[in-house]
Amino acid sequence: MVSLLLVAGVAVAAFVGFNIGGSSTGVAFGPAVGSDTVSKVTAAALMTGFALLGGWTVGREVIDTLGSDIVTTAFTLEISIGVLFFVGLALFLSNVAGVPASTSMTAVGAMAGLGLARGTLNWGEMGRIVSWWLVSPVIAFWVSAVVGRYHYPRLVEWFAVTQTEGSLVVLDRSGALPRPELGPNTTTRELVGTLLVIAIGCYMAFSAGASNVANAVAPLYGSGDLEMSQAILLGGGAIGLGAFTIARRTMDTVGNDLTDLPLLAALVVATVSSTIVTGLSALGIPASFVIIATMSIVGLGWGRATRTVTIADARGGDPPAVSVGALAAEADEAPTVGGDGGEGGASDPPDAPPIGSEDRESIPDAEDLFEPATTARVIFLQNVVPGIATVASFLLFRFVPL
Question: What is its biological role (predicted)?
Fold first, then answer.
């Protein structure tokens, strides 16, 4: 009987990891896939490898937190299966809708439902986690705002790249051993820019693994039925399965439907968000990458918009015309990877105007950046999915004797 329960527990954990892979892969590689930098198959392979690496290294701390610190209830196989079932069900609903949800908030919500139902919730640990959930988006906002106000125009000049026709790299077979060289139309700048896009996607996959592998396997580790290494391999493998299958829809949503965010802005958001999530994972905090990334986008747009006025002007009562659409303000002058620019990218971009001299009319409306209907659907599900897991878990453990 115990062995059958263990098989059921492993199956449910794999189901959760499968849905995590479907959600997280879209967030990590959606921009790269949307710009045709990598294929969906390549994105899935990279997601699998780097998510497993993140779980194997930094993710151990998060597994400890979720497996033993949030609730004082001793995890049994029955309880573990119940918690994981509702995490997987809630994430599955979001993936069917093609929208990436916060896997960490969903997992913590399911465990909080267990703790509330049994009166065993560790309020101190929950307070620490929720405090970081409140602080980390603020950090993401202000870091991105500083980048947008003071550094974004210069980054546009540095990383302006245009994709050319043909293969990025080809093999020269004229010698004894084949050696790679640039494609017939490829510039060094294009190669470096493309590698940067891929590298940041891999960094996001690493941070997703560090934070999210625990969401799939922590209850089974907490019950003592899986060792740490076994749990990580199970979670990482299940995430890879989701990346190769159900993630195709979320990659389309993030890469094509949700936003016209310039690729450079997406890279800034990815770097800021992944760094914060990785840092929190090292502290044992299950972080919400989706919410952190959203606030990073808003902060970057706000920082770009405030370049129209100086601090002295703002103190004098001349508020800036704030619009998240400001992220696209430089797009015509210096396209990023996948943009429409001159041969090899903008090699001699114009100098960025000083703060306070930019014309407010040059800042696009927010509608030029976001698809309103898709954005509303994403925001709605990001809030509903963790709530579904929490309420369902509470009802199960409150009224069913497990």
Answer: Potential transporter for phosphate.
Q: Work out the angle at residue 222's Cα, subtended by the Cα atoms of residues 218 and 223, and round it to the nearest 5 degrees.
A: 120
- CA dihedral (373, 374, 378, 379) positive or negative: negative
| Between residues 84 and 266, the one the model is more confident about | 84
> Residue 170, Cβ neighbours under 10 Å: how many?
14
Position 238 pLDDT exceeds 70: yes
In sign, the C-alpha dihedral spanning 66, 71, 76, 78 is negative
Give 101's contacts (C-beta < 8 A, 6+ positions apart): 23, 90, 91, 94, 95, 290, 381, 382, 385, 386
91-142 confidence digits (pLDDT tens)? 777 767 666 667 788 888 889 999 999 898 999 999 999 899 889 989 999 9
Least Cα distance to 320 among 306, 334, 302, 340 occurs for: 306
Contact assessment for residue 13 and residue 216, using Cβ atoms and an 8 Å cutoff: yes
Mean pLDDT value of segment 22-37 = 75
Classify the C-alpha dihedral 206-210-215-216 as positive or negative.
positive
List the structure tokens of 166.
């043909």
**Taking the complete model, does pTM exceed 0.90, yes or no?**
no
* β-sheet bridge partners, residue 259: 370
Instruction: Tell me the C-alpha distance between 200 and 265, whole Å.
Output: 12
Asked which of 123-127, 149-153, 345-349 is least confident by mean pLDDT, the reply is 345-349
Euclidean distance between CA atoms 243 and 237, whole angstroms: 10
Give the DSSP letter string of 309-335: S-HHHHHTT------GGGGGTTTTTS-
Can you tell me the distance from the alpha carbon of 266 to that of 203, in angstroms, rounded to the nearest whole number?
Answer: 13
Q: Helix 263-282 and helix 289-305: axis angle, to 10°?
A: 130
Q: Find, among 321, 191, 190, 338, the residue nearest to 261 by Cα.
A: 338
